Amino acid sequence: MRKILLSIALVTTAFATQIEVDVTGHPESVLVNGKIAYVSNVGNELKPTEKDGDGYISLINQKGEVVDKNFLTGLNAPKGMALIGGTLYVADVDTVRGYNLKTKKEIFSLVFEGVNFLNDITVQNENTLLISSTDKGKIFEINVKNKSYKAFRALPDANGLLYSNGIIYGVGHKLVTINLKNHKTTELSKKEGIFDGIQKSGDTLYFSDWVRMEKAGVIHTYNLKTKKEHDLPLETIAGPADFWIDSKTNTIWIPKMMEGKLLISSLK
User: Fold this and answer.
1) Among residues 98, 100, 129, 135, which one has the least CA distance to residue 117?
2) Is the model's pTM score more than 0.85?
3) CA geometry: angle 7, 11, 16, nearest 5 deg
4) Non-local CB neighbours of 59 within 8 Å, separated by 6+ positions
5) Which of 5, 73, 131, 214 is deepest in the core (most CB within 10 A)?
6) Using H for helix, E for strand and C for coil, what is the string for 23-87?
7) What is the pLDDT along the chain (268 residues), one digit of tens a residue?
């Protein structure tokens, strides 16, 4: 596959050397699978609910090289992604689309009536996805086998979701957990903000905060055992959206949504 080498800058901060990749447009979400990262992009304009057909998914390798900028095209404003087997599921305004990664063909499509801001997706099991709807302040459950969905739980300003061992970790303007055994919702942090992505590594939750619609965003952390919180020592980011932590390489991949860039940084 032909490689498209865009601008890659090396930056030294409190962390080890970082890679900043110019991906243009407005990158929203990252999903790392082995040596390849899928990056969703809402398009040239920051219009996350527009059905304008200019959204796409890019492929980027571990070196920060853009392998295929237009791997999947023709989407509207793609955001969160999830992988089950060889199918990549993508939240796209009011529709969840599924693509066969070998053929790049769309093999799944599910439209949500009355919804206009599907956002993040997490896998509960091989038949079930959970997806946030920011405009409705809800989490929906999707059965991928029979292509159906149902309202699952309320979550004000629902955005980032992560499912792990019977627990849903979620962010909107707060950080919460939803225990699927007793259906109890627990607020973990006193922080409030414009929270977006959420990831977990070991006992630590990482969640992004736009703070303001300018270069002011940060990545917060919350330790589930000690309850201690701090911010990663990164430069402030304009629009830290739905990031990814690659546990195999111990790196964090952060879309700088308002800058048209992707930051890849070591967590060591």
Assistant:
1) 135
2) yes
3) 130
4) 1, 36, 37, 38, 39, 66, 67, 68, 71
5) 131
6) CCCCEEEEEEECCEEEEEECCCCCCCCCCCCCEEEEEEECCCCEEEEEEEEEECCEEEEEEECCE
7) 333 334 445 444 444 579 999 999 999 999 999 999 999 999 999 999 999 999 999 999 999 999 999 999 999 999 999 999 999 999 999 999 999 999 999 999 999 999 999 999 999 999 999 999 999 999 999 999 999 999 999 999 999 999 999 999 999 999 999 999 998 999 999 999 999 999 999 999 999 999 999 999 999 999 999 999 999 999 999 999 999 999 999 999 999 999 999 999 999 7
